[in-house]
Amino acid sequence: MPKVGITTTIPVEVVYAAGWQPVDLNNSFIASSNPRLLVEEAEMAGYPRNICAWIKGIYSTVRKDEQIKTLIAVTQGDCSNTHALMETLQLTGINVIPFAYPYDRDYDMLKLQIEKLMEAFGVNWQQVYEARQKLNKVREKVRKLDEMTWRSNLVSGWDNHFYQVCCSDFNGNPEEFNKRVEDFLKGSNETAPKQEKIRLGYIGVPPICDDLYAYLEERGARVVYNETQRQFTMPDSVGDFVEQYRKYTYPYGIFYRLADIEREIERRNIDGIIHYAQSFCFRQIEDLIIRERLSLPVLTLEGDMPNSLDARTRMRVDAYLEMLR
Length: 325
Prior knowledge:
- With about 325 residues, the protein is α/β, with parallel strands linked by helices.
- The protein has a domain at about 5-125: Rossmann fold (3-Layer(aba) Sandwich), CATH 3.40.50.11890.
- Helix content is about 50%, strand content about 15%.
- It has helices at about 10-15, 25-30, 35-45, 55-65, 80-90, 105-120, 125-150, 155-165, 175-190, 210-220, 225-230, 240-245, 255-270, 285-295, 310-325; strands at about 5, 20-25, 70-75, 95-100, 200-205, 220-225, 270-280, 300-305.
- The strands form two sheets. A four-stranded parallel β-sheet has the order 2-1-3-4, with helices on both faces.
- Helix 3 (about 35-45) crosses helix 4 (about 55-65) and helix 4 packs parallel to helix 5.
């Protein structure tokens, strides 16, 4: 099964319908044995220091995986540095297929982009819908896991993050991932409810640091809502395939995202919001809108390199949780 790298969530049903294996390069990068080294290797190749570490990590991940010869690069609706990323990878011989989410969520423009992707992989709508039917069965179980996080208090913030973020590519093997989810659900149903008194929401891109969720739970707080990761499960499931990716909030404007965030804050009875912003990312600017719009206390955290929380960030988290108590 040929591999195709993806720079963020795309209509992955098209890839599976064609018999290819998608690889979410973000997940591969951060789950590698030494993600920091991948960033440094990109800098050795010529990437500037003041560019997002995720972009540099993706670059090195593709260069190291000899099975990835094709890349689907999201040129609108994700990182603004993706253009240069795809050009530097084209220079090394990688075949790049661009995909763009229309900023205004225009149905016809999005349908055109999906059909261009289908043409590139040689599949038709019937094949795409058949692939979607299989993937939706897995997504449904992960949505159940999410519900067990905030309604039954049986799932940790990290597990909620992990299983949802894996829905971008289903770890390249939906059947195997489905089994893993089933086993996790079974085990979680046999545990006692978690007792953390402070309920948090996490918004923004997934964190580059590896111990945020564990640290929060050590301090008596738990993330019961992971905004972007939840979107990877396509939570607003609808019949129309194009509409499914119109309702997917992450690639569109901040105000569309905020409407979803505000609904979930209310539904999940959340006490405070952690807004994670990656260093050198244009989304840092959106923090001022988030603070203006949300009525809950917001703690903004910035991460740069793959690492654990530093002392300064831990002190800020401690002070924030103390304020919420």
